[in-house]
Amino acid sequence: MQPAHPGPPVHGHPQPYQQVPQFQPAAYWPPVPAPVTIDGFMIVQPRLRPIPSGPAIGSLVAGIGAVLGALPGMIFAIVTPWAGLTFFMSSALFGIGSLFLALHARKQIRGAGGGISGKGLATTGLVIAVVALSLAAITGLITTANFL
To answer: To bridge 139 with a disulfide, which of 42, 52, 79, 88 should be the other Cys (CB 3.0-4.6 Å)?
Structure first.
């Protein structure tokens, strides 16, 4: 039931009901069927969103951990070489792990044919791994100099 023309507001009476615009959800990527040939027969299979690569995420996290271990390691290596050795080993292990995870993730993404995403994460993890290994090497040099 639609009210008549509302007219001027009357004191004590609420304004007539006005329809509020309905919320429209964001357009989601619709799964569009893709024809696929299996054993010579065409079938329709839905296209799904690519899943993020776990090794790429792990590479990024391990690389950040390696950098966060190497930075204070350079300071502690000046104070005591044993602390510097500890930070050097942890940052080197995390950096090597990040490097191998990044290389594995890039290979996995290339071979997935669009089913796995995260190429940027893997590249960022690779760059951070190289930076972390460089910082770990500097930490190792400072530690070695203090042992001598």
So the answer is: 88
